[in-house]
Amino acid sequence: MRASALALGLAVPEEDALLRAIVDASGTGDVVRITLHDADGMPELDAARRAPAAPEPARLISLPGWYARGYRLREHKLTSHFHGVRGRALAGARGADDALLVEQSSGRVGEATNANVIALVGDVAVTPPVDGLLPGVTRALCLEVFPLVGLPVEQRPLLLGELPQARGVLLTTSVRGLVPARSLDGAALAEPAPDLLSALREALEQAETAELLPLPLP
Length: 218
Hints:
Layout: H1 2-8, H2 15-23, E1 31-39, E2 42-50, E3 58-64, H3 82-93, E4 98-102, E5 109-112, E6 116-121, E7 124-127, H4 137-145, E8 153-155, E9 168-173, E10 177-184, E11 187-188, H5 194-210
Parallel strand pairs: 3-4, 3-10, 7-8
Antiparallel strand pairs: 1-2, 4-5, 6-7, 6-9, 9-10, 10-11
């Protein structure tokens, strides 16, 4: 959030203010969503709690023309999230859970409506480079921890046509962690081997725990 505020020229909140917002968040649940508002050059934070969604395997559709390289605003998590809301609505109308945003001309995969994408192509985990897509915090951790369990990672263009032959397709989010994709446009996808998925999730959880910040007392 602070990095995006700097990049966009918004008021930058202090770390203590972010932690306090988490403690004082309204509602119930283990997930806290914080929204930053720039009020005449002063940062204002709203925080609300909700229950996390289960990391159940996801059914996906593809949305060609919904990803554009070079669109820098997409590299920040903004409150204007029409593409995500509409993309999930289109997925639901087709009996799916989420949608992959794809470049029309090349077939390059960008991201899902609210998640990054990693495909297990051969013996390598492939994820699209950050170019007009959100550089998610869970994606960043995956780049660090996947090699620790013997799975190299490549940041390179990922084509929609590669996914049916992949050993697994994963969505990465800060709330649900690693979510395997079950199908794409109605066709079944291979799911990661259970022991590999378990090892990746455990390594990710350990990395997340190591980066926890102490919250102030209520």
